Amino acid sequence: MNILIVYAHPEPNSLNGFLKDLAVETLSAAGHEVIVSDLYEKNFKAVADRNDFTELNNPEKLNYIQEQYHASKNRTFTSDILEEQDHLLWADIAIFQFPIWWTESPAILKGWFDRVLAYNFAYGPGHYDQGNLRGKKAMLSITHGASSLANYGAYGLKGDLDERLFNIQHEKLFFCGMDVIEPFIFHSSTKEDAKEGLFNDYRKKLLNISNEPVIPFHPLSHYEKGQLKDQYKTSIQQELEMS
User: In this structure, how many other beta carbons lie within 10 angstroms of the beta carbon of residue 39?
Assistant: First the structure.
């Protein structure tokens, strides 16, 4: 399989750097083709603006979404965007390796989402299960600084981690049609004698990546006027009661 790793951490010798290297080694040894897009090494531009296009359809007034549409039809994005889009088209699975900073991804990765997942390339007119990247899979591999996962949850100090990741997993990746594999989560304060166990867990997940369970997001057909239809609400309520 072709696997893209989008890596967003400024320090190569960080825990995120180690997890990225572990993924490359494990996946390559298993026979997969791997490309790493190291956003900090590339000095990837995080700000979406008119400089993202080699020509503008309307130079008088910037409508970023409409310019994305035009650039997707004519390949008039700048070369850094085109390179990332070509990597996505090549990939069967995209892994996003990053730390949680201020409850979300680093700005450089948010900029990647803004600029690369362009209208008419990644979505539009279809979205969610009808997005343009359907047939591909994505997975988050993240680190966070909480002392343990016990800090998260409906009654946890830091809130529900699934809700926090929903913004990326549902509203970006699934929005563009990708099936989203259950994430790998590594709390960085794990004691040294327990880290190797987590590393082994990640190796196992990577070796089984094509068969790992995906998050069962509802397709658009389950909604009406932006709200889940009544016949599908029962399962959600049951899940909430069990959690």
Answer: 21
Tokens 């069962």 belong to: 216
Are 106 and 99 a contacting pair, CB within 8 Å?
yes
Sign of CA dihedral 102, 41, 123, 209: negative
CATH of 2-217, one of 3.40.50.1360, 3.40.50.2300, 3.40.50.360, 1.10.150.120: 3.40.50.360
From residue 226, give the alpha-carbon distance in Å to each of 128, 153, 222, 235: 12, 26, 9, 18
Task: Tell me the residue type at 116.
Answer: V
R_g of the chain, CA atoms, integer Å:
19
User: If pLDDT is split at 50, 70 and 90, which confidence band does 146 have?
Assistant: low
Residue 197 pLDDT: 86
Q: Mean pLDDT over residues 207-221, rounded?
A: 95
CA separation for the pair 28, 234 (Å, rounded): 43
pLDDT of residue 243: 46
Tell me how far apart the alpha carbons of residues 178 and 214 are, in angstroms, rounded to a whole number: 10
Q: For residue 184, how far is the Cα from the chain centroid?
A: 12
- Tell if the pTM clears 0.90, that is, is over it: yes
